[in-house]
Every structure is written in C-alpha cells, then in structure tokens.
Amino acid sequence: MADTPWLDDACSLVDAFRSGERSPVEELEASLAAIESSDLNAFSFLDPERALEAARAADVSKPFGGVPIGVKELDQVEGWPDTGASLVFADRIADHTGEAPRRFISDGGAVPVGLTTASEFGGLNVSVTKLNGVTHNPWRHGRTCGGSSGGSASAVVGGLVPIATAGDGGGSIRIPAGYTGLLGMKGTYGRISRGPDAFFRPGTVVPGVMARSVRDAARHYDVVAGVDSRDPTSLPNAGGWEAGLGTVDLRGKRVAILPSIAGVRLEDGVEAQLRQAADDLVTLTGMEVVDLRLELPNLAAQWAMGNLSTLLAELEGRWPRCRELMTDEVALGAVMAESMYNLHLASVAEGQRIEAYRAMAGAFDRVDYIITSTNPGPAFAADATTSAPTDNFIDTAKASPVLRFAFRRLMASLRVANGAFPRLSNTLVEAVVRKVPDLVTMGGLTIISNIYGNPACSIPAGLVDGLPVGMQVLAPHHRDAELFDLAWVYEREIGWPKVAPSVGRAASTTV
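The structure corresponding to this sequence follows.
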C-alpha cells in the first residue's frame, strides 16, 4: 500500500497506473486511509466496498481509469444518499446516477469513493450545514472552503483524492477554487449536461470539477461534455480539449483588468495581488491591456429570490413544515421570497438580466477577456454561514425563537402589503442591499458569468495573509478553450501548489 495518496494531478496518476508505478487498488486504499484520519470533514458518505470493486476492475486505458474521485453530494449516484446536504432528505437514496457523474465514472473510468460535503441545496457559498457540520480549508484549519462545492475543494487540495465533481450556479466552483488554490473552470452554459433532471431555473448551473491542474479539467471536458437529450440546453462536445492545450495564439488578444466588478468591495491586499498576477499573465502571453468601463447591476438579491421556486419544487410539499430542519439562512431566504417575490420583483430581475446581457455583450465587443478577482478576500471563518460581517439582520433574525417568530409575522404582513403595493418588495430588497451590501458580496464577482452564461475560470493567483486568492478570467460564449490556454500558460510558467502546504509537509514526513 502507498504511504499517502497521490499528491500530483489526476492525469499523472493515470500515467503512474499505466507504467505500473501505482495500482488503482493501492491508491484507493491510501485515499480511504487519508480520509479516515482527516479532520477536514470533506466527505459526508463513503462506500469502500463499491470503490474497491471498481478499483479492482479499473481499466487504466480510460482517461481517468482507476482514479479515486469524490462526488459532490448534490450530484446523484444510484444507491447512495441523495440528501441535498439537508436534514430534510437525510434518509433519501438516489434511484439514478446523474449524467455528468455517470460519464465521469463509466466513460472516464474513475473510481467513486464517496460524497463530498456541500452547502444545503447549493444555496450558500459556505462550508457548513446542519446535516454535516463544518468543512475546513486545508490551507488553514478553521477557515472556510466556500461553497457550494466546498467539500470537493477540501478533499482535492487536502490530498484525499486528486479530483472531485462540482457544480457552479452562482460561483460554486470558482469560489471554492479561489479560497483553496485550485483551478476552477465554469464552462459556457450547457457545456456539461445537467440531466436527467434539468430544471429550467435557475438557468445558470454548469457541472464541472475541482482540479489540481488545467489538463485535469480539460480532460474532464473531453469525457463529460456533450449533448444529452434530457437536457435541451446541452451543447455538442467539440473534443480535443486536453490535446489542444497550448495551441491558441494569445498574442495581441485584448484584455481588461478590473479587480472588482458589480460594486463589490475587495479586502486589503487582494487588488494588489490580483494586479500582479494579471500583469504576469499579460507579460507571458503578449496580450494587449485595454481600458474598459463595465457597469453591471448587482443581481444577487433579486436573482436568488426567484431561484427559490426551484427549492420549493424540490421540497415536494414539505415546506413550510420542514423549516426548522433547514439551515437558518436558507429557511429565512425562502420565507422572504415567499413573502416578497411577486411579478413586479420578477420584472425588475428580468430587466436587470437584460441590462447585464447588454453590458457584457458591449464589453466583449471591445475585449477578448476580462480579468477580475474571484472572491472579495481570502477565506473567512469556517463556521460562518455568510461572508457578511457579524450583527447583520440575518444574524439578528435567527438569534432566538422569539425573533424568528417575529420575523415570520413581519414577512406575513409584507405578503399582504405586497398585494396592495406590488412595488414594495423591490424597494425593500434594494434598501437591504444598500444598508448591508456585504450580504450579497460573496458571489457578486462570479454570478455575472452564470447569468450571462459565458465561460469563466478561477486561476490560483498567490496568497493574501498566507491564504490563496483567485484570479478570475471571463471570456465570451463558447471560447472555453482559450481560458484553458490562459490558465495553462500561467500554470506552466508560474504554477501553484497542487495541494495545501500542510499536506505536502505531512507527506514528506511519512514517505
């Protein structure tokens, strides 16, 4: 048995399998041992027997043949828990395997080890739920991995498995990637199937992976991307994603460097680190920097409320009886949406969407890429349920049963008032955003690419306060390959750690 799991990327592990340096069985055993001894809380479920059977039968000629992987617990694997990371569905078992993980496992040859922790129903960009507790960042225990793919990020950068599935509906791949120093690619909307249950709302989700390297993410595209008849938004797979790395001529491409967008306030040190990384990338590629003014509405609040309709559909009539089982922030959000969301608020959200479309289209008429920060700052406290400062109105509302009851009464009154004054809802939402802008800060940098549907990639861009920060690069629709090449140049010439330093140190003392 290997002393530690493989600490390089998944592609190099496949090479090690093919050369006989490692075997899928010994690699699985090393991963299981590491997970068992880990205090990261990155996995919510393990299936050692099924994984061992798959490892013994692994076909290492396949793209990910024999590689142990984590599967985000919001994905379905037949026979495994299908909890949505919520106590509401703590006993539910999946009766099917989602198309993206199915292709990864069946077509790619990956060995599924278990489910990685996620935020409840993917609704928060944090690493804590009532069902699973707190997931920790391997760079610094006690700090968040973000969400909703936080467990996948923790497992990969924590040296437990070399790659894990993820999904990005508002930043849920890129945000954890930024906080943990991984490569986070959100493709063009439709690039990877959401089937077999492809809800129309929120119309922003793109499955993917948390990856240690560009070639891992590109190879995943080769295996998983493509048309699925159960997802009418899915796109054809052109193929050649990994083979094409390094073939795009980036010299002379126009790029705008905007450390922050949509009015998001960056923490100290982030802009300086972002500008240094962006300058390095420009120098390496020969791109041309272009001045650009990008005026974007902050879509987070109105967009989030509308998307809660999908949550109520998933709860299948259990709402509001299940309210106390849910994460307070998700439950309060549902109460607010139920009370405040109406046709006028929907019309405002749709108007903002069109405004955002026009702004992004105008920007990409002038530039090929936009570089911005992935997150407002480095990872905050792991047990925080929002990135907002303490003593905000959500903390106040959930502080006691009495206050929660009062909040629900207030929302009920607003529901009645909205019937007579339909514009009231949006007025209140905008007032809250103005008064407590940090409530919609996390995700404010990433959500625009989900709304517009363009590809966006978070590239590890160094450290602030000893913790990773991400450089996010946005490109026009269908130009995913160019983002892979930009990230590939940066990885090749500057690079980043494949795992957190503590993992490397631990490995060096045991090998």
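Residues 343-366 form the longest helix (24 residues).
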